[in-house]
Amino acid sequence: MAGESRPPAWAWSVKVNHVRVLVLNCGSSSVKWRLFDGEAALAGGLVERVTDHTTALRQILGEVTDVQAVGHRMVHGGLRFSAPALIDDEVVAAVTELIPLAPLHNPPNLAGVKVARELMPGIPQVAVFDTAFHRTIPPVNATYAIDAATAAEHGIVRYGFHGTSHAYVSRKTAALLGKDPAHVNVITLHLGNGASACAVKGGRSFATSMGLSPLEGLVMGTRSGDIDPAIVFHLHRVAGMPLDAIETMLNRQSGLRGLCGDNDMREVLKRREFGDASAALAFDVYTARIKQYVGAYYALLGRVDAITFTAGVGENAHEVRVAALSGLDRLGVSVERDGKGVISPPGAAVAVCVVPTDEEQEIATQTAALLA
Ligand code: ADP
To answer: Which residue ranges form the domains of the chain, and what is each CATH number?
Structure first.
């Protein structure tokens, strides 16, 4: 797992022009797609209320021409995949074996792969894993302090997610600073519906907040992030909640929604402005958790060149960025303005940046790079 010898992310992100890549993100009830030619996005869309992936894919194939390769977004690649993989029966079997670790995500991802292979025989298909970027995390930051034999037997380890976004955004941050990614340490904060933090050391993932599953770490739209694991036992034994109900609560009725009823940060901000106490508490808990991770990753990295915000909340919510980084002046961290790019004062020790993520673009780039 401590893949020091593995190539850094940018090794498989070399820009390759003029390969037409169809990027597919197959969920259980929707298929998101985009067609790229090199860096240029030619078309895209979202097929919703999908009941079978064959119908959805036929519809998409009716709208695209001359596809030379397909890039599939795959959520869980376990410990095996530290880079994109050209899909064959063996890769499909390996991802199928990982279903117990990602029961909600891997099955629809695999359904998309199966149908795409049937409908586009002979077109190379590439799996780009959310977990792959994190395979460079050293054991010290990936190991849970539980019984080691049990953990080994059941694959209980920090896998991390949102890797495609953290890879893309950390590389863009280095470019924004005019530096080689190999010489830059960045804390990336992907704040969307799901949210995760990543300590990127010299272009490689070194620590990340999501773990065995995407439930750990930051407070999210509907997920709790970090909690005392004893809460689960307490709810089961004392409150009499079945495990499935607890899992549903922690994934869908927690986070911002659990605290104030709204999972959309825009609503939370509006209500907070009008003096709503539960929205204000939700905002405070959300931003304090981000600050905790920034502090923790600052300590782990030792030297931080940049802190980068991305995804729906990170790219848009100035109030969140300001609150999350407030009081960190002594660490050389401060926010000067709203907007995109570098938002810290000129000459600050740590550049604070806003960099829009583009996971589909990154999947297309990695797909083309693998085939080249
Ligand atoms: P996903 O994780 O599903 O890809 P996004 O990255 O698009 O989601 O983030 C979606 C979230 O971003 C929304 O739920 C909303 O809370 C937040 N968001 C989007 N636009 C804004 C905005 N202008 N201000 C604050 N929050 C926003």
So the answer is: 9-129 (3.30.420.40), 178-354 (3.30.420.40)
**Pairing of β 31-37 and β 40-47:** antiparallel
Establish whether 130 is a catalytic residue. yes
- Dihedral pair phi/psi, residue 108, rounded to 5°: -65, -35
Q: Report which protein residue has its CA nearest ligand 1's atom 3.
A: 193
Contact indicator for 101, 212 with CB cutoff of 8 Å:
yes
As a whole number, mean pLDDT of residues 103-113 equals 93
Distance 367 CA to ligand 1 centre (A): 27
Q: Whose CA is nearest to atom 12 of ligand 1?
A: 312
Q: Report CA(267)–ligand 1 centroid distance (Å).
A: 11
**Ligand 1 pocket list (CB less than 6 A):** 192-194, 221, 264-266, 311-313, 316-317
Q: What's the one-letter identity of residue 280?
A: A
- Summarize pLDDT for 25-82 with one digit per residue, the tens: 999 899 999 999 988 999 999 999 888 899 999 999 999 989 999 999 999 999 999 9
Q: Which pLDDT band, with edges at 50, 70 and 90, does 2 fall under?
A: very low
**Ligand 1 atom at minimal distance to the Cα of residue 195:** 2
State the closest ligand 1 atom to the C-alpha of 193, by its place in the atom list counted from 1.
2
User: Which protein residue's CA is at the shortest distance from atom 14 of ligand 1?
Assistant: 264
Q: Ligand 1: distance of its center to the CA of 266 in Å?
A: 8
For residue 70, list its beta bridge partners.
Answer: 22, 125
Q: Cα–Cα distance between 202 and 136 in angstroms, integer?
A: 11
Q: Locate all alpha helices (DSSP H) within 253-348, ordered by sequence.
A: 255-260, 265-273, 277-301, 311-316, 318-324
Candidate list 89, 130, 226, 264, residue with the active-site label? 130
Total length of the chain: 372
With contact defined as beta carbons under 8 Å apart, do 128 and 84 qualify?
yes
In the reported structure, the alpha carbon of residue 192 is separated from the centroid of ligand 1 by a whole-number distance in angstroms of: 5
Q: What pLDDT does residue 18 have?
A: 79
Tokens of 57: 């894919």
